[in-house]
Write a structure and sequence with these properties.
The complex is a heterodimer of chains A (about 130) and B (about 130).
Chain A: E1 2-11, H1 14-30, H2 35-54, E2 59-68, E3 71-80, H3 88-91, H4 105-111, E4 115-121, E5 125-133
Antiparallel strand pairs in A: 1-2, 2-3, 3-5, 4-5
Helix pairs in contact in A: 1-2, 2-4
Chain B: E1 6-9, E2 12-16, H1 23-39, E3 44-48, H2 57-72, E4 76-80, H3 84-93, E5 101-103, H4 106-123
Parallel strand pairs in B: 2-3, 3-4, 4-5
Antiparallel strand pairs in B: 1-2
Classes of the chains: A alpha+beta (about 130), B alpha/beta (about 130).
Chain lengths: ~130, ~130
């Protein structure tokens, strides 16, 4: 997979989540996602950015335009150095929440993208990487 | 402080969300709307989300909360103008807005409010 373009945004506050949504939308439009897919990747980005801010104590979003043969896509990597997730399987389940939310963040975001990877280490942090192909 | 305007239209309150909401703005709206329902003795709340390009679980929860709080304060809520791409995304995300009534546009939303309010007045007519 070739990386054609890359940019890193901070994720510390609610304003950063808004900025992340806007940046992801702009890139998704630029590389030719249709409207429904733009909405899906922006919504996934919003959920995952909020996880970084609310659970991970802040972190960064790395946005990349990637190319795999003929197809182009957007890869978004969310990194925090927070407490980590003790039980990934449980955290991926709908309805599971530690902050009184709807608990749709991880599982829901996974359904909105084509590829989803998560790594988490207790006391070290969590990295979620998603790809959506045009 | 940045705010979302709340307009009074007869017995109803009308809110049109025109900005990409950050979390605090969403929470402020929730607080202000509940205060205005009581202050204005409103019977219905109409929330226009036609300008919203994204409804994530946070905004979805806010809409559901407003509808529940309004119901407890004897007011009905209708959310209008959802974009088709937003509806598709919300369903895949797993967000079904339980307890929130929706209509395609403001006009239809007002019709729903009129019939809901008329029904509740029929059930408990004034002496």
């Amino acid at each position: 997979m070739n990386i054609l373009r890359s940019e890193t945004l901070p994720l510390q506050s609610s304003d950063d989540i808004v900025r992340a949504r806007q940046a992801v939308r702009a890139w998704a439009v630029e590389i030719g996602f249709r409207l429904v897919d733009q909405t899906k990747i922006v919504t996934a980005a919003s959920e995952l950015s909020r996880n970084v801010c609310d659970h991970g104590g802040g972190g960064v979003l790395r946005m990349e335009v990637v190319e795999d043969g003929e197809r182009k896509g957007l890869r978004l990597t969310f990194e925090d150095k927070g407490p980590g997730i003790p039980d990934l399987e449980l955290a991926m389940k709908d309805g599971y929440s530690t902050t009184g939310g709807l608990g749709l963040g991880l599982g829901g975001a996974k359904r909105l993208v084509n590829e989803f990877h998560i790594e988490s280490a207790i006391g070290k942090g969590t990295t979620v990487s998603v790809v959506k192909w045009v | 402080m940045e705010r979302i305007p709340i307009l009074k239209l007869g017995n109803y309150l009308l809110v049109s969300i025109q900005v990409d909401m950050h979390d605090q703005l969403a929470l402020n709206l929730q607080d202000e709307l509940t205060a205005r329902i009581v202050q204005d003795n409103a019977k219905g709340v109409l929330i226009d989300i036609s300008a919203l390009e994204v409804v994530d679980s946070f905004i979805g929860r806010m809409l559901a909360n407003i509808a529940s709080m309004a119901r407890i304060l004897d007011a009905e809520t209708v959310v209008v103008g959802m974009r088709p791409a937003v509806a598709i995304t919300m369903v895949e995300l797993g967000l079904s807005l339980p307890g929130v009534r929706t209509a395609l546009n403001v006009e239809k939303g007002i019709e729903i409010l009129n019939s809901l309010v008329a029904r509740s007045t029929d059930e408990y007519p004034a002496e």
